Amino acid sequence: MRAPADETFAEMLRAAVPGLSVGAPGASYLEEPRGRHKGCGGVLVKPASTAEVAAVLRTCHAAGVGVVPYGGGTGLVGGQIVEDGPAPVILSLEKMTAIRAITRHVLEIEAGATLQAAQDAADGAERLFPLTIASQGSARIGGVLATNAGGVNVLRYGNARELCLGVEAVLADGTVISGLKHLRKDNTGYDLKDLLIGSEGTLGIITAATLRLLPKPAAVGTAMMVVESPSAALELLELAEARMPGCVSAFELISGQGLRFLDAVGPDVHQPFTTRPDWSVLIEIGLPEGLAAEEALAGLFEAAEGLVSDGVIASSENQRAQMWALRESLPEANKRIGSISSHDISLPLPKLAQFIEEAQVALRALADIRINCFGHVGDGNLHFNAFPAEGRDRKEYENLRRAIPETVYDLVDRFGGSISAEHGIGRLKVGDLERYGDPGKLAAMRAIKAALDPKGILNPGAVLAER
Amino acid sequence: MRAPADETFAEMLRAAVPGLSVGAPGASYLEEPRGRHKGCGGVLVKPASTAEVAAVLRTCHAAGVGVVPYGGGTGLVGGQIVEDGPAPVILSLEKMTAIRAITRHVLEIEAGATLQAAQDAADGAERLFPLTIASQGSARIGGVLATNAGGVNVLRYGNARELCLGVEAVLADGTVISGLKHLRKDNTGYDLKDLLIGSEGTLGIITAATLRLLPKPAAVGTAMMVVESPSAALELLELAEARMPGCVSAFELISGQGLRFLDAVGPDVHQPFTTRPDWSVLIEIGLPEGLAAEEALAGLFEAAEGLVSDGVIASSENQRAQMWALRESLPEANKRIGSISSHDISLPLPKLAQFIEEAQVALRALADIRINCFGHVGDGNLHFNAFPAEGRDRKEYENLRRAIPETVYDLVDRFGGSISAEHGIGRLKVGDLERYGDPGKLAAMRAIKAALDPKGILNPGAVLAER
Fold first, then answer.
1. Which of B101, B51, B149 is nearest to B421 (CA)?
2. What is the CATH number of domain A344-414?
3. Considering only CA atoms, which of A104, A98, A109, A100 is closest in space to residue A127?
4. Contact B199/A187, CB-based, under 8 Å?
5. Strand B248-255 relative to strand B279-287: parallel, antiparallel, unpaired?
6. Which DSSP helix (H) or strand (E) runs through A169?
7. CA A84 to CA A78: how far, in whole Å?
8. Any idea where the FAD-binding PCMH-type domain is (chains A, B) (predicted)?
9. Architecture of domain B7-94 in this structure
10. C-alpha to C-alpha distance for A433 and A416, rounded to whole angstroms
11. In whole angstroms, what is the distance from residue B366 CA to residue B356 CA?
């Protein structure tokens, strides 16, 4: 059993790590964005260096005290929240925000810097760090990597994992792994970087990273196009990729339900289509020199005759921003409506359209609900969220709070999909992972966790259930 | 201590796995391409299914018998060769070559299929599997993934790791991990796929994989350009990427020494420049519709005035093939000359040119040698190989067989580079990894190895020294 992070332990930390910021965690460290779970935490520490992180972990390891790594607090699966058990140390990286180095190809940055700060640093060097998520102003690099964040540009540029060349991290016992390589190719031993990325703070705490910087496209174009169905959307994607291989950077599916939610509750955004289409896509391309983005999109629109019934091509930066504002307002509209259950899932592309049909039928058989299905369809990633019927409250659906996700996940599983495409497992999906995960993989995960964190102090109860 | 794979154990295998191909390994299973090391192996098994692989490993695990996974035998660091100790089982994947499924986006293929077979399957579906290495006709997918192979297209498409969506693998105790996902986004637990990729058969045996298929570029262009220096080559790369972001698929540095080796010993290939330039690059681009590749390369050539002194743009498929034949003949020419020591290294791009200068000076201070420095410079990856002076034999340099690599690797290490960019550690670089590797990383690697393979039966002595 772990020991609690109480006042005695706080004193131990102060003695062991002179100068360390040690205090009581304010309310903001014990909340999560959806407001459904409240955390407990005995002691908040804010180390200012990797050496301080290592010293904190050595002390916690010796005493058997749990540690919850804390980034921007934007995670949606409770990875930053311990609801019960011995109060843990909350270790916030917020003081470690330095840019340690920047070249044309690599940004070396500390884990407490926000994703926005990384993007801005790249932009300042006239380069691109393409990872883009709605919470990037608050989300910190450590959390972005720990959860292998995805977002809208994965189609072209990959997840956080593919954009990270190396990490510096501290293991449970305080061992520092110094892996801040500026290298694209490095086959020297096991891939600890990728093991730590996506481990949600349960195997080590990432303190800094080297991120890939890329050249900016010579021309960027954005459009919204109306399609008949998700299946037509995927055909349009095929067409776009055949014409512009590797140049389609975002391909987002938007459902009519989402647009009607925006009409009903806001945020107030410009909608390009007067009649709200049942299905539309936002497509963004980035091209080499010699091609005009608007022309390329117009060419795609023409070539997609029969597949696309209407479309708007952004002809100014302002119009482009409006389209993205619409897309990025969907989660806020969802929040204002109040979902019964949200599902961050992915499907093999050839099965995605059939999944949407069958899942809608299956959920509507359970209850009178509305479904807002949208997301990064180019990656097979859907946010498939269930809402109360108009005029009804989500409290009326309390009895379905388990049946709805089970129905969705059973179907996802049957179609060979993932029950967590980009948000991770955190604490909310631990049971789902046990249910749907491959038993061989789970056994190997437990063996690795026991090997690297034998006392189970790192983010206890996240990803893997405590035994 | 492990037990030997002797005739008694062969009988045990036959009894435990009815129908399994069990025999004595022929000479070809005990050699490696450079002919420097001879392996020992007591029993050769050729399982025909994942279930058979699992049964073999269960039996080996129970008896404490070592297992060397065997793909195409093309590895250059001795990962496929055990020179001494108890004779291991050699487990060849050559019977598992099936294509299990193919869609527009994913090729599901068994580990014994060659890389060429994977490329051909993609091509048959009018898609691209971009991983390209000289040995692709023999190298098998299992080995390609186990060593995280690189090659000429990493610049645009990434290493084997980035092109693999999931693996099926068998752990030391026979546990099967079924991870053949067809998904681009899947954040459900630790990234075992990437841990197994690059682990060189020491953590598990990959039996099948899902590989990413990509759209083919609408237009492909290839050129060779003469530059003043490696530094000018990197400036040219910058320029090319600024004009055609994400569209430069290969950027290979070629030294005059390599061209002179071809003149002296063959293979007989067409050389585009009558006077052999000290430095030249082979550049390949893949463009979207609407751009002509030859024009784009001509535009680059013009824009590179002052940087590029001469150039040839391929105007036919034949000319393109000639350029690649020249590039791909360099390793064979090297072999015919006979290197004293070869080094597969990578450097941070901003330090690469300086490294080449300093390394040449340092090696020439040791002895009168020739250096052929070439490779995937766009990824920072160099093959930096030392040869005898003209008219001398490599035997005369026997006393420098340790000093030369040490000099190179010390410098690589000082410049923040990697002592193995794409070939891996195998057995030949185990000592180098201990010397230059991060101690924290090595400790974590040993903990993971002990957790997943407690008896140390999987590819014993590869990557990590046996204790």
1. B149
2. 3.30.70.2740
3. A104
4. no
5. antiparallel
6. strand A164-170
7. 13
8. 37-216
9. 2-Layer Sandwich (3.30)
10. 14
11. 16
pLDDT along chain A (467 residues), means of 10: 94 97 94 85 95 98 98 93 92 98 98 98 98 95 98 95 98 98 97 98 98 97 98 98 97 98 96 97 97 97 97 97 96 95 97 97 96 95 96 94 96 98 96 98 98 98 93
Q: Which residues of chain B have pLDDT under 50?
A: none
Q: What is the largest CA-CA distance in chain B?
A: 71
Q: What pLDDT does B321 receive? A: 97
Nearest to A242 by CA among A312, A300, A306, A298: A300
Residue A221's DSSP bridge partners are A285
Q: Which residues in A lie closer than 8 A to residue B454 (C-beta atoms)? A: none
Instruction: State how far the alpha carbon of A435 is from the alpha carbons of A75, A228, A442, B22, B193, in Å.
Output: 22, 35, 10, 38, 20
**CB burial of residue B317 (10 Å; 0-12, 13-18, 19+):** exposed
Q: Which residues of chain B make contact with A194, given a CB cutoff of 8 A?
A: 161, 191, 194-195
Q: How far is CA B277 from the centre of its chain?
A: 27
Q: Is B430 helix (H, G, I), strand (E, B) or coil?
A: helix
* 3-state percent helix, strand, coil for chain A, nearest multiple of 5: 35, 20, 40
pLDDT at residue B40, rounded to an integer: 87
Separation between Cα atoms, residue A249 and residue A192, nearest integer Å: 28
Domain residue spans of chain A: 99-212, 219-337, 344-414
Task: Name the nearest CA neighbour of B258 among B322, B336, B345, B330.
Answer: B330
pLDDT at B364: 94
B101 in A contact zone (CB under 8 Å): no
For B184, the closest of A105, A380, A442 (CB atoms) is: A380
DSSP 8-state assignment for residue A399: G
Do the beta carbons of residue A214 and residue B155 sit within 8 Å? no
pLDDT of residue B333: 97
Token pair of A433 as six digits:
């992972």
CB contact under 8 A, A288 and B286: no
Residue A239 near chain B (CB below 8 Å): no
Tokens of B323: 């350029």
Q: What is the pairing mode between strands A99-102 and A176-178?
A: unpaired
Element containing residue A432 per DSSP (H, E): helix A430-436
DSSP of B416-446: T-BS-SSS--TTTTHHHHHHHS-HHHHHHHH
Residue B383 one-letter amino acid: H
* A399 token code pair: 């009895």
* E strand residue ranges, A152-236: 164-170, 176-178, 205-212, 219-227
CATH class of the domain defined by A99-212: alpha beta
pLDDT of residue A36: 78
CATH code given to domain A219-337: 3.30.70.2190
pLDDT in the model for residue B35:
81
Residue A364 CB-half CA count within 13 A:
10
- The β-bridge partners of A280 are A226, A254
Same fold, A219-337 and A344-414: yes
Interface test with B, best of A190, A243, A352, A383 (most B CBs within 10 A): A190
The pLDDT of residue A35 is 81
